[in-house]
Design a protein that fits this description.
Layout lengths: L6 H7 L3 H4 E4 L2 E5 L5 H10 L4 E5 L12 E11 L3 E10 L7 E3 L14 H4 L1 H6 L6 H12 L5 H29 L7 E11 L2 E10 L5 E8 L5 H12 L6 E4 L5 H7 L3 E4 L1 H43 L12 H46 L3 H13 L6 H17 L1 H4 L8 H10 L2 H4 L5 H27 L1
Parallel strand pairs: 2-3, 3-5, 7-10, 10-11
Antiparallel strand pairs: 1-2, 4-5, 5-6, 7-8, 8-9
Helix pairs in contact: 6-7, 7-17, 10-11, 10-13, 11-12
The structure holds zinc ion (ZN).
Length: 470
């Protein structure tokens, strides 16, 4: 027989109902081992306001083994939203008469208005993307129908974040171990500048190139930051791990530190090219500007010449000596034509300079793209041999590069070493996008977001990708 689907029968269709809930006379009866938040959920989805009663699971006295009988109820306002009743009991054995109450301590901390689950929502949201307390309040209300003022969300995060992050980190650590993901020996290292409330900090990061694992990450005030800071950080973080190679950008501190660690040092080729391009682009812009100015002037001159010629009735041949006006115009035309030739020459020269620069940029980038170290060195040598004929930006770049050319070519010698430090750039952009960076007013707030995002990165880029492979 087909039953008419009332709100009641929807619930009874759920499989879980047997041990977690019963619905009698519009009263939702929940076991104390089930989160009372489910009452709010059910109200929300069924658009009802059920009376809710929480009962004990085991109705036997633990002193004498007799049955417990009901003995009135306590009231509780759950999440400042819903009135629920908590069943009280008394042992039915007249000699014992022990009193019992249901306990929700698993779900609601003592003297808290909100359940643990609700109090954690702000942090759960931050572990996906950072949002303001106002937005969090809105999102939580939309998803749970529980309204929490922004100040309360702030307070919850402050008191819960430490433990929340430790729990999440432990969970993820366990999964990493279970998946047998281990440091590979090839690491990216970098620092990022972070301004927190106008104070400058450096975020130091070691990222495993092979499995994307964050080996270590730390935020240090620039006042405490020096070569020793990097050295200690790298030494301590990599102490128990294999060390083959470290990829960095071109900071002067790195070479000796990395050498002392016994690692191969690869300088990011992308950064090298970027340094070159900053200088080259300045020049290119200058040449482009000159070309444009010349072209504007050429056009003006051409128009003026045309006008003058028209005024001279197109007669460009011999001019009668007495015709002073005509002569003057003719003089002017000659001057303008000469100027235009010079301008055209400037334009041509600038175009040639641009072509030349572009040619050398290409040649330099080919060094890093070489298939063999022999080719790379040959390409570099060719440029160095004619350093006197090179444009100045190119020759000074080559001079600088000659000091550490070996360090930018390690990726060619060792197939497993990446060419660039782009992976760590990508990590920074993903975990702390530009629009979020400036939001933080305290170091603690920044570190919290950094850690939450590191957990997210590990879930998505270490564990997920690894599981896909197997
Ligand atoms: Zn008893």
């Amino acid at each position: 027989m087909r039953q008419k689907t009332s709100t009641t029968s929807i619930i009874l269709n759920l499989d879980i109902n047997k041990f977690i809930l019963n619905l009698e006379n519009d009263t939702l009866i929940l076991n104390e081992s089930v989160s009372p938040d489910i009452a709010i959920c059910i109200d929300y989805y069924l658009q009802n306001d059920f009376n809710t009663l929480i009962v004990k699971e085991n109705l036997v006295c633990d002193e004498c083994g007799s049955k417990l009988s009901k003995n009135g109820t306590d009231k509780l306002i759950l999440n400042k939203k819903k009135n629920i009743k908590l069943q009280k009991y008394k042992c039915s054995n007249k000699k014992c008469q022990k009193y019992y109450k249901v306990s929700l301590l698993e779900f609601i901390d003592k003297s808290c208005n909100y359940s643990k689950n609700i109090r954690q929502q702000g942090l759960e949201l931050d572990s996906i993307d950072h949002s303001s307390y106002d937005k969090k309040s809105e999102i939580i209300e939309k998803h749970t129908s529980v309204k929490i003022p922004r100040s309360t969300i702030y307070y919850h995060e402050k008191s819960l974040s430490k433990q929340f992050i430790i729990n999440e980190e432990n969970k993820i650590q366990e999964e990493v171990l279970k998946s047998k993901i281990q440091p590979s020996g090839i690491y990216h290292y970098d620092e990022q500048y972070e301004f927190i409330n106008t104070e400058l900090y450096l975020r130091m990061t070691i990222l495993d190139n092979k499995n994307n694992l964050i080996i270590n990450e730390k935020l240090v005030s620039h006042k405490e930051f020096n070569k020793k800071t990097i050295q200690n950080f790298l030494e301590k973080s990599l102490d128990k791990h294999p060390i083959k190679a470290i990829i960095t950008d071109g900071n002067n501190y790195y070479p000796s530190i990395i050498e002392s660690l016994g690692a191969i040092h690869q300088n990011c080729a992308f950064h090298k090219m970027q340094n070159l391009m900053t200088e080259v682009i300045k020049k290119l812009n200058k040449y482009q500007r000159q070309i444009k100015n010349a072209e504007i002037q050429i056009e003006k001159n051409t128009t003026r010449i045309k006008e003058l010629k028209k005024e001279n009735k197109g007669k460009t041949g011999r001019i009668h000596l007495k015709d002073k006006k005509k002569q003057k115009r003719q003089e002017k035309i000659r001057k303008l034509e000469k100027e235009t030739r010079t301008l055209k020459d400037t334009r041509w020269k600038n175009k040639a300079k641009i072509k030349e620069l572009e040619k050398y940029v290409k040649k330099i980038s080919l060094i890093f793209k070489s298939k063999t170290i022999k080719t790379a060195k040959k390409r570099f040598q060719e440029l160095q041999n004619k350093k006197d004929e090179l444009p100045k930006v190119i020759s000074s770049f080559i001079k600088k590069l000659s000091k550490n050319i070996e360090k930018t070519l390690q990726h060619i010698i060792h197939e497993e070493i990446p060419k660039t430090n782009n992976k760590i750039e990508c990590y920074y952009k993903t975990t702390m996008p530009r629009y979020i960076k400036k939001i933080f007013r305290t170091k603690e707030g920044f570190i919290r977001q950094m850690k939450l995002q590191q957990i997210r990165w590990t879930k998505r880029n270490v564990l997920n990708t690894n599981q896909k492979k197997t």
